[in-house]
């Protein structure tokens, strides 16, 4: 049974997140997007956890949950949260003066009772009521110890593994090796999350990651961003234990229906906020080779540049670019449908009424967004919408895009059509 899963999202209670992120709205958006399994996000936040308990019910004894008012269990929720850990550990990395660590971890729980016990423990020692993604003054080792003492099937793994400020391999406050972060519990870490600014090919360059399952999640702060990254599983049964087993044991997926991860759905990493190095305030954006020429210093303000994901991968990689390990799941890079529509019809905002009308029209005609972006025949798409939109989807599938990489917290810019093509289209419209 194929299942599309996005394990890492947030609720309306997390900082800088949409108030529309309620459980019923998330369930509805999953139906439109084509997501089968979605993370609850933020289960440590008391009010959100109350919503989870009041609005969801377990699907049999699967460890997965559904909206109580839903007509069926097509959309399942997996108990999840993201925790920010800030602490000091070990010696500073070469060239650094501080051993302060700031990392984000994704946590999945096998059942409500396990969440209750974890929340009770954390609430006594830390402030979990300030934000949906709380900042905890504890180490990754401490977190692993408490979670696994509550239930052996808690899953904990690094979020957006390469981003500069809050990640295990971040250039600002991370580590150079998993063992430096997780210590004796490294053996209990079964996965890592690529983050928006890296893709599988970049992660394959580090052999230390070969024995971990690569996961790509949206880290969505709003409904439109659900499944901008996701994972496509083939499962024998749709349960938490099956997800846990596939992630832990990493069975290689072979065409023909075997269980495992078939492929991941990826953001174009250049569009991520930290792909290149740079200084946003100074308008400086550099590929690693240019950063090296500048000796890591911004030519305008003379301060150190924020080193991005591409550079950090290059620093730790022990393989050449283009290396592909054996038996790894594939991946497909996408641009969200409303973004494609917006560019195709010449509108800046993906949330504009005109874009949303066309979006809903295509969904009604063809099915879910992910089906349209990945599988729907282009000829069928042409019948359901404007030629420019169909062409945009075709170009996204083939990677024929113009991308200005993101840097220092600024998203990259993905362009499907050249300025010349846009002018020609505008002339035709007139």
CATH top level class name of the largest domain: Alpha Beta
In helices, the fraction of residues equals: 25-40%
Strand content: 15-25%
Please tell me what the overall shape is. Answer: globular
Give the rounded overall mean pLDDT.
95
Low-confidence stretches: none
CATH architecture of the largest domain: Alpha-Beta Barrel
Strand order within the widest beta sheet: 5-2-1-12-13-16
What is the assigned CATH homologous superfamily of the largest domain?
Answer: Metal-dependent hydrolases
How is the CATH topology of the largest domain named?
Answer: TIM Barrel
Number of helices: 15
SS-derived structural category: alpha/beta
Number of strands: 18
Could you give the distance between the termini? 49 Å
Count of folded domains: 2
Mind telling me the C-alpha Rg?
Answer: 22 Å
**Main pleated sheet:** 6 strands, mixed
């Amino acid at each position: 049974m194929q299942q599309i899963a996005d394990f890492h999202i947030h609720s309306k209670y997390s900082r800088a997140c949409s108030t529309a992120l309620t459980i019923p709205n998330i369930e509805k958006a999953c139906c439109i997007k084509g997501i089968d399994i979605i993370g609850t996000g933020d289960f440590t936040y008391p009010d959100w956890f109350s919503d989870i308990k009041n609005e969801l019910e377990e699907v049999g004894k699967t460890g997965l949950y559904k909206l109580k008012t839903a007509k069926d269990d097509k959309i399942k929720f997996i108990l999840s949260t993201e925790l920010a850990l800030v602490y000091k550990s070990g010696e500073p990395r070469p060239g650094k003066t501080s051993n302060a660590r700031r990392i984000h971890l994704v946590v999945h729980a096998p059942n409500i009772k396990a969440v209750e016990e974890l929340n009770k423990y954390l609430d006594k020692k830390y402030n979990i009521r300030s934000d949906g993604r709380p900042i905890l003054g504890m180490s990754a080792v401490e977190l692993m110890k408490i979670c696994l003492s509550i239930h052996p099937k808690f899953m904990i793994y690094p979020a957006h593994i390469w981003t500069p400020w809050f990640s295990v391999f971040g250039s600002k406050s991370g580590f150079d090796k998993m063992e430096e972060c997780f210590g004796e519990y490294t053996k209990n870490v079964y996965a890592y999350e690529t983050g928006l600014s890296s893709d599988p090919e970049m992660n394959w360059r580090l052999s230390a990651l070969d024995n971990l399952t690569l996961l790509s999640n949206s880290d969505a702060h709003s409904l439109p961003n659900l499944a901008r990254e996701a994972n496509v599983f083939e499962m024998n049964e749709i349960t938490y234990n099956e997800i846990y087993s596939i992630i832990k044991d990493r069975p290689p997926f072979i065409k023909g229906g075997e269980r495992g991860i078939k492929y991941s759905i990826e953001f174009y990493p250049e569009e991520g906020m930290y792909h290149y190095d740079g200084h946003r305030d100074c308008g400086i954006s550099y590929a690693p080779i240019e950063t090296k020429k500048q000796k890591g210093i911004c030519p305008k303000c003379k301060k150190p540049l924020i080193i991005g994901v591409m550079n950090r991968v290059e620093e730790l990689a022990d393989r050449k670019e283009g290396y592909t390990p054996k038996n790894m799941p594939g991946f497909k890079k996408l641009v969200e449908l409303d973004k494609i529509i917006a560019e195709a019809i010449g509108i800046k905002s993906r949330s504009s009424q005109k874009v949303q009308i066309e979006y809903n029209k295509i969904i009604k005609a063809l099915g879910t967004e992910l089906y349209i972006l990945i599988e729907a025949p282009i000829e069928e798409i042409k019948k359901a919408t404007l030629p420019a939109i169909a062409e945009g989807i075709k170009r996204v599938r083939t990677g024929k895009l113009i991308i200005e990489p993101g840097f220092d917290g600024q998203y990259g810019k993905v362009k499907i059509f050249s300025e010349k093509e846009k002018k020609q289209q505008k002339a035709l419209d007139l």
